[in-house]
Amino acid sequence: MFAPFPPDSALDDARAVARAELVSLVGTHGDDIPLDKAFAWLCAEERGSECIADLLNGIDALAEGVFLPDEIDVFEAVARINHHLFTELGFAGNTDHYDDPENSMLDSVMQRRTGLPISLSLLYIEVARRSGLTINGIGFPHHFLVSPADATPSFYIDPFCRGRVMRTDALKLKYQRIADEADGRLPPLSWWLKPVTNRQVLVRINNNLKASFMQRDGLTGALRCVERLLVLTPDALDLRRDRGLLRLELGLEEEGAKDLDAYLAARHERVSTD
Predict the structure, then answer these.
(1) Does residue 52 contact residue 22 with C-beta atoms inside 8 Å?
(2) Residue 145, SS3?
(3) How many CA atoms lie within 13 Å of 91's alpha carbon, on the beta-carbon side?
(4) In the chain, N or C: fewer CB atoms in 10 Å?
(5) Rounded CA gap, 83 and 104, in Å?
(6) How far apart are CA 236 and CA 100, in angstroms?
(7) Residue 114 gets which letter from DSSP?
(8) What DSSP string describes 46-94?
């Protein structure tokens, strides 16, 4: 959906525009950041583009195949969305190359029709919203899910597994295995099943992309992720530390040293206050 990378100077300018647009969205909307626009600007920054119209139009096109009549039952609405996305269009989780950074890129997810649980969940949320159905993001550990806002009783959808529908009892078993591996250091299941904010969704997307870049020694890409995370969570001290370390690795010694000094000073102040 994007043209080939422009020359370095133009690429930097385009990335600066995309970052500024994301900063504006965060500043204007707080926790209710528009997911589609924010995810699109993330992709635009990575690709080096100053425009997200094609990406948003692509989501619109996906939603055009869904028709939800007035007064439709929420279960029937989910069944129609599932049929369209996973049967007709063939969206599915990328199990062969799970850690590929392209799984966190909106254009690739739409073109290849595969991605991570959270990127597919974000598309699901936005296609449903355009069709008139409100879907919440659910930050289940290790595997993002979605859930209809008005469903009684609640149920959960796994876009990574072609829209598999699960009740709370099924998630209890999954959660217990994860909790056992964590030696009981996780919050209770009820905490994980609460809807997350759009800001939290975007934080998780950037964390996933950062991890993908780090596994490939893509330090400049990881640095962009950390900088976006600082836009979303400016008070996170560990991110200031991570940015400093990445800058040092990339030869940006002055900037890296400033970040680490600020991190150590803030950490000392926090410890002294506690």
Answers:
(1) no
(2) strand
(3) 28
(4) C
(5) 23
(6) 26
(7) E
(8) HHT-S--HHHHHHHHHHHTT----TT--HHHHHHHHHIIIIIIS--EE-
Taking only the tens place, the pLDDT of each residue in 182-213 is 876 889 999 999 999 999 999 999 999 999 99
Could you tell me which of 101, 73, 77, 72 has the C-alpha nearest to residue 222? 101
Contacts of 228 (CB under 8 A, 6+ apart): 19, 22, 42, 45, 202, 206
How confident is the model over 212-226, as pLDDT tens digits?
A: 999 999 999 999 999
**How far lies 16's CA from each of 13, 44, 115, 228, 243, in Å?**
5, 10, 26, 12, 17
State the pLDDT at residue 274: 58
Long-range contact set of residues 64-68: C-beta below 8 Å, sequence gap at least 24: 65/89, 66/127, 66/128, 66/130, 66/131, 67/131, 68/131, 68/132, 68/133
The SS3 assignment for 158 reads strand
* Local confidence band at 4 (pLDDT 50, 70, 90 cut-offs): very low
Q: What percent of the chain has pLDDT over 70?
A: 95
| Domain ranges within the chain, ordered by starting residue | 8-192, 235-273
Using CB atoms within 10 A of its CB, is residue 59 exposed (0-12), middle (13-18) or buried (19+)? buried
- Residue 51 phi/psi, 5-degree rounding, is -140, 140
- Residue 139 tokens read as 């930050």
